[in-house]
């Protein structure tokens, strides 16, 4: 191994460990339960998952899509880089027909063509090397099988949250791409070019009326969402930066408010892409 490739491997290992720590911080199981549960069911429906299907959920987290897929009678494997999320998913659905595997989306430990369906619900988008992750999803899907990915859009509320936090985060390592790019249709089509056919891409919104106001949104993400928890911790000893970060996050929520009656409602935009493995 060359010095350059060795350094690259070492940097990747550090990055993956940082990701594990980030997603284990805060309380993502609470977010999955209180805010984004409908997304997993929507992906399962779009893919037509049913009895007899062998399904892999990549970057499955707590099983937001895995558990609904298992309830259809499918044989489901939920894989994720962060053991704590898998543990929470297993504890939350102890009777679900799900195998919970610690696995890297960029180096899946499964043989070629192992699954009828490979999916990811707001998960694989956070793998830093998009092409590598897409290639792995395609590799483990059998020819004629289905692949489905649901991701936050760059111009949606969560995409805008990441844009707002960008100036407060450390610069990404070389080769790492922004997560919300998975919510750009052209980007996803290019990632799966030559390996997917009959591709459909649909933009939808997740209506969210959970928060009383923009300040409540900011406080919730400060304490529970791994990427923002980690960002706040970077500036724990810098009150001016914390104040600026609060302002940036609150502004995102204020812009996203669609209520016209004095209430507070947001539409979180996402892209749902499905296709058949060539």
UniProtKB/TrEMBL annotation:
Task: Please give the Pfam families that the UniProt record associates with this protein.
Answer: Methyltransf_11
Write out the entry's keywords from A to Z: Methyltransferase, Transferase
The molecular function terms in GO held by this entry are:
methyltransferase activity
| UniProt-listed CDD domains | AdoMet_MTases (cd02440)
Determine the domain of life of the protein's source: Bacteria
Annotated Methyltransferase type domain residues: 56-147
InterPro entries per the record? Methyltransf_11, SAM-dependent_MTases_sf
- Asked if the record carries the keyword Transferase, the reply is yes
State the Gene3D superfamilies in the record: Vaccinia Virus protein VP39
Q: Which GO terms describe its biological process?
A: methylation
Q: EC number(s) for this protein?
A: 2.1.1.-
Task: Specify the enzyme's EC class, one word.
Answer: transferase
Report what the protein is called.
Class I SAM-dependent methyltransferase
Instruction: Tell me the organism.
Output: Flexivirga alba
